[in-house]
Amino acid sequence: MEYKAVIFDLFGTIVDLQSEESHKNHRRRLASILGVDEVDLGPALHQTRLIRDLGHSGSIEGDLQVITEALGICLNPDQVGEATRLRIRYFTDYLEPRSGAIETIEWLKSHRYKVGLISMCAREIPHVWDESPLAEYMDACVFSCLEGLIKPDKRIYQLVCDRLSVEPGDCLYIGDGSYRELAGAEEAGMHSIMIDRGMKGDCVDKHVHTDIEEWDGPWISRLTEIIGLLGCD
User: Which are the contacts of 13, defined by CB distance < 8 A and separation ≥ 6?
Assistant: First the structure.
């Protein structure tokens, strides 16, 4: 099969998922700034995740207000500023390319594949994206919080195709299976490959529906395996 474009998921695909320890450290620092118990912050983050991923609040500061409303508290301007800066630093550091990511994407670009990204994310990611080492390689990016669309909605896959000027059937989608993204890509007309999550720890969001248990399609354990697969076309 010859493809014209390769579309990547972000978290767990071209950047590693952070460890549970890293998440706990961030939650602890955020809870301290907000003046709440860390035990209460976790459920509030989960409860508001879909709202934030859909971008309903319009900003990072708005997302913080959504979180604090779930906690039943109000923030002063200093707390908002400090919490916003913490979130920006955390997600800036999060966007470290996974091993093999740059090598693989450079190979794709050198062989005239278009490269796209679809990410389920809140406002922090598009805010810091241009500073990411990955940004310069992408021909089109779709962030759920900017589009008001989430995986596995067919429209989010069609949107990246439209921006790349390709048909879904000409696209290979690579993801770790979160949010049923692989099944969604297939239903949109793409061809999908699952990649091993490559976690640095044991951070698995048990509330996120994944394709992992049901997926019986192709999978890879390293991004560079894509070069071998496409190099045989």
Answer: 98, 174, 175, 176, 195, 223
Residues 151-195 have pLDDT tens digits of 999 999 999 999 999 999 999 999 999 999 999 999 999 999 999
pTM equals: 0.92
Question: Tokens 């993801």, residue?
Answer: 175
55: left (phi over 0), alpha (psi -120 to 50) or beta: left
For residues 33 and 142, is the Cβ–Cβ distance under 8 A?
no
